[in-house]
Design a protein that fits this description.
Number of helices: 5
Shape: elongated
Structural class: alpha/beta
Helix content: 40-55%
Order of helices and strands: HHHEEEHEHE
Radius of gyration: 25 Å
Strand order of the largest sheet: 1-2-3-4-5
Distance between the termini: 84 Å
CATH topology of the largest domain: Trna Endonuclease, Chain: A, domain 1
Number of strands: 5
Largest sheet: 5 strands, mixed
């Protein structure tokens, strides 16, 4: 009799544990579905942002600044590579954000500095990291950081780029 009651208790506990596990799995699946929907909605809103346009000097009557022209050239380059490019409105230190399947592209277009130093590259990497941390929907993507410049680099900056190819790429020709 004691064996039968013990067996009944064990079966009841196993059934109860099975029900708890099933409920937790459903809750997890629902949460993942909500996060996926939120990610898709936020991605759609990012992609719907206005893409940069190249100003036409003949229409506006003025010539574009060198930074705007350079940024337009960089945008055109990445568009030909298959990326959907948007200008960054919220991220300080990041000028262009690109998406392509599971890839994230973060680009800084620099034309104002006299020469690019190591600290400029490190600040850009920090800005990218902060931006990704503030936007958790971007964490699952492989991230590429490009520092696009038509300015010379210091020797220290060149060494830094060579020693840290996974952190930042230099884009000196567009």
């Amino acid at each position: 009799m004691v064996t039968f009651i013990s067996l009944l208790i064990i079966v009841a506990i196993a059934y109860w544990i099975r029900m708890i596990i099933a409920r937790k799995q459903r809750e997890l699946a629902d949460k993942e579905h909500r996060q996926r929907e939120q990610f898709l909605n936020e991605s759609q809103s990012l992609l719907k942002s206005e893409t940069p346009t190249i100003p036409n000097p003949a229409i506006s009557g003025k010539t574009p600044s060198s930074n705007e022209s350079y940024r337009a050239d960089v945008t055109r380059h990445w568009n030909t590579q298959g990326y959907t490019i948007t200008e960054s409105l919220k991220a300080e230190g990041i000028d262009l954000i690109g998406f392509k399947e599971k890839e994230l592209l973060l680009v800084r277009c620099e034309t104002a500095l006299r020469e690019v130093k190591k600290i400029d590259l490190q600040a850009f990497i920090a800005d990218c990291t902060t931006y990704i941390d503030k936007n958790p929907m971007l964490r699952g993507r492989s991230c590429e950081r490009f520092y696009a410049t038509n300015r010379p680099l210091t020797e220290e900056a060149m060494i830094y780029v060579r020693e840290n190819p996974a952190s930042v790429h230099l884009m000196d020709e567009v």
